[in-house]
Amino acid sequence: MELRLCLRLHARLPPATTPPPPPFAAPAVLPASRRIRTGGSYGVALRRPTRRSNPAIRASEADGAPGVAVRERSVSVILLSGGQGKRMGASMPKQYLPLLGLPIALHSLKTFCQLKEMKEVVVVCDPDYSDVFEGSIENLQIPLKFACPGKERQDSVFNGLQEIDGDSELVCVHDSARPLVSSEDVKKVLEDAAVHGAAVLGVPVKATIKEANSDSFVVKTLDRKTLWEMQTPQVMKPDLLKAGFELVKRDGLEVTDDVSIVEYLKHPVYITEGSYTNIKVTTPDDMLLAERLMSGK
Hints:
This protein is α/β, with parallel strands linked by helices. It has a domain at 70-203 and 229-295: Spore Coat Polysaccharide Biosynthesis Protein SpsA, Chain A. The chain is 28% helix and 22% strand. It has helices at 2-12, 104-113, 130-134, 137-140, 153-161, 183-196, 238-251, 259-263, 284-295; strands spanning 36-38, 44-46, 57-59, 75-81, 98-99, 102-103, 118-125, 144-147, 170-175, 198-204, 210-212, 218-221, 228-236, 269-273. The strands form three sheets. The protein has a ten-stranded mixed beta sheet with strand order 3-1-2-14-10-13-9-4-7-8, sandwiched between helices. The chain has a two-stranded antiparallel sheet with strand order 5-6. Strands 11-12 form a two-stranded antiparallel sheet. The longest helix has 14 residues, at 183-196. The termini are far apart.
């Protein structure tokens, strides 16, 4: 009797309804002007909105302000293409190996030449390989210049800097071995450099980083929340870069990236959050990954 009553009551209940899932929301895209920076008057400013809970990071006073437009034909690109690429184990420098039918170096060149902000590209390369770039000029519709590579990276950048137009408002230094840089990321770092004088693409470090001594014993574990992996482009105002080079040469300093030259001036350098796909192709495994990323596999 009780069982039949329960069944009858259950039959009268309205069917359970599952609330429809909320529509998929695309991630919000922050304008280039939204900023987070480290405290203090000198240091590196961060573009990382997900870290606002970190007490070491505070919102920029310019947060929410409209972005700064970079004028058309106001940026000179220095495309570094003078490396030897010995780790690739190929018969030619890695930047000239074919990637989906096009030399690696030409992929980023094509990206830059399609942006209205660019006025010229100075290619720093071995003269024996200049024909790789000259053969693509007719399709690029942008002035192309050449400079010889130096012994070290900073020497190559310096040589390229001597060739840029004197009216350029920004100089954009890029490794030709990074063929997957996107036009969107380039535009973001250009805007940030226009505001702050110097900016660099970077991504938050994913792995745990440990400092070791000369005997390979761990000294300490670094705070991953404050670590960024630097990429290119690295963008600066020409006068800043020139002043930095004067200081570097005077004091005999060595640097491994371009914004380090500006850092020696005690000028703040802004980190524009880039993309993990902007890899540097240095090994055969990198080449395979680049092919997969470009082909969408």
